[in-house]
Amino acid sequence: MATVLSVSGSPSATSRTARLLRHLDARLTAQGHEVIPLDVRTIPAEALLGADFGHPAITGAGELFARAEGIVIGTPVYKAAYSGLLKSLLDLLPQYALAGKTVLPLATGGTTAHVLAIDYALRPVLSSMGAAHIVQGWFTLDKDIATGDDGIPAVAPGAAEALERVVDQFSAALGRASLLAAAG
Ligand SMILES: Cc1cc2nc3c(=O)[nH]c(=O)nc-3n(C[C@H](O)[C@H](O)[C@H](O)COP(=O)(O)O)c2cc1C
């Protein structure tokens, strides 16, 4: 099974995107993957905004990317694209930080008008960073992500089924990639 880095690019302290990712992390863990969560908002702002390539938090994030076979990238849609916070980290990673990786792009947003933001905005950036395989992504409406009284994220039934499907496709793609790697 694979090591998966699960990256949330929301600056919000009560982020729906992060909650959604942590919910999906549990499914990946149950499938046998080692999942490492990374909230970009926990990286010091001076490192991200000052383009401090040598800052331990930036080199540490780079090492997590290097170690993972699979990367989940989650972002809120801001102004019809992915978040600036996510871009500030991606800009500080090596050009081919996603080389050989299987990537699952996910977005949350307030309107279906921007359901294609993953494909026209995020996917080209992931490709430019050398991703070996970008599996089908998914856009989830913010109103479909809630938190129950127990603090556990609750995803509306239709959205939950769609997300489970894309996560399972990602997991299957990771399995195929590891078989290919083992075959040399
Ligand atoms: C500054 C800002 C800009 C936004 N722009 C868009 C947008 O262009 N399209 C959209 O569908 N939702 C937009 N939204 C709504 C968020 O994408 C949505 O609520 C998302 O789930 C927030 O995720 P978060 O809680 O992880 O930050 C915007 C929200 C903010 C705060």
UniProtKB/TrEMBL annotation:
Keywords: Flavoprotein, FMN, Oxidoreductase. InterPro entries: Flavoprotein-like_sf, FMN_Rdtase-like_dom, NAD(P)H-dep_FMN_reductase, NADPH-dep_FMN_reduc_SsuE. This is NADPH-dependent FMN reductase-like domain-containing protein. Gene3D superfamilies: 3.40.50.360. PANTHER family: FMN REDUCTASE (NADPH) (PTHR43408). SUPFAM superfamilies: Flavoproteins. The keyword Flavoprotein applies. Pfam families: FMN_red. Residues 3-144 form the NADPH-dependent FMN reductase-like domain. NCBIfam families: FMN_reduc_SsuE.
